[in-house]
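Regression report. Comparing outputs from two consecutive submissions.

Submission 1:
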Amino acid sequence: MVAAMSDNAPQPTTHFGFRDVPLDAKKPLVRAVFDSVARRYDVMNDLMSLGVHRLWKQVFVSQLDPRPGRSLLDLAGGTGDITLRWLEGGGGPAILSDINESMLAVGRERLLGRGHVAGLSFLVADAEMLPLPDRAVDTVSMAFGLRNCTDKDAVLREARRVLRPGGRFLCLEFSAVQVAALAPVYDAWSFKVLPRLGRVVARDAESYQYLAESIRMHPDQATLAGMMGRAGFERVRVRNLAGGIAAIHSGWRL
């Protein structure tokens, strides 16, 4: 006989920045952040990285290796940076996906405004539960989105599930600084300067504070590589960028 769960039993929690929140509260909180910053998202990334994110994305897309015969699922694709670079780099059909409709609307407007119609589709979807069949795409990308997901292991399992055998998943994300001398400067920038810039530029210091905190709560390079291995990816590799301020993780479905 199974005992009934007590109403006083502890409820599962997760982190939202440095705060613990009920598990089912994180997605609405994250959605509110990106609803707030959607129209200023590229400015946000410029502020967070001093513009270097644009170079990181060039490196990332070169590792995606866009080719006409390959398809892409761009998870947490937001304003369409990666999808745009994929298509303009000669890549094949692309699905721009994001859980946040406000972000996806910006990406749709951007891509259609650049004349990208053929071979392009848009999908409002939770990366933890993708409404796509098994073995649907050749490449899955995720840039600066994984740290905002509640169940990162589920995202990794789904990314592998929708990949065809021989396909590859690549994740670009802020990570753990590997150069000791950079750490205090980076911390000062993240927690003292960035929220103030958010207040001035976007009139939204709280969202920028969360984004800085979310970076520190994200798994470091070795931990994320281990998670990818447990999700079934093989030949997992890590490439640090800017001393580990960001990193590219890649793995194959073989």
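Submission 2:
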Amino acid sequence: MTRRKAVLLHLGISAAIGAAALMLLFGLWYPPPYFAAAGAERLALLLIGVDVVIGPLLTLIVFKPGKKGLTSDLCVIAGLQLAALAYGLHAMAASRPVFVVAAVDRFELVAANEITDADLAAGKEAGFGERSWSGPRLASVSVPTDAKEYDHVQSLALAGLDLHRLPRYYRDYAANVAALRERARPLDTLLAKNPAARPTVDAWLQAQRRNAADVVWLPLAARRKDIVMLMDKATGQVLDPLDVDAVW
């Protein structure tokens, strides 16, 4: 085999593996637009860059037909690639979004590594006791009414542990939908403060065959940037997250 054929073969295999990894990320762990909101682009680019570029480049450097120890060199390169891929996927899995939590006047995107196993085990309702592997699950938080527990929650918040990261306070979204509807805002307020969002909003309305007057929104806070969650004005039903900057 010539060097050119070896590099092309390696590049083809690496590209196929990279494509499979991207399908996993976009199709299951980070469904759009959560990929950008969670700030996963840089890690994904690094992951694909190492897998698709560095490996074949090393093959180009070391490959020489008939070279003694060539098989060992190629095995080392492949092993390093697989190790880098495994590490990258592990990091991406650890930070994947697992819950979208409605919290008073906004939605919060919660990553897998933002919830401890102990807090997860304390979840009181079915469906909130495990981390999702197929995109974030919708929940809402219930503010405790007991004075002592409320004070405890406040002290946790001061320490940086907010309600949306405590599954024991998660409830079905429908339980708090009325309060969220009261705080939701018309699309006109978003477009007035963020005119750049109009093409994206108009495209969504056209695709969904919806009238702007029947749709409201709340901010969806995420690690990298705050985007928008669209809701049905009449029912409060969650419609779609939209990749436009939220204006609080």
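Expected: both submissions complete independently.
Actual: both completed, but the second showed a warning that disappeared on reload.
Relevant detail on submission 2: The beta strands are 97-103, 106-111, 137-141, 170-171, 185-186, 215-221, 227-232, 238-242.
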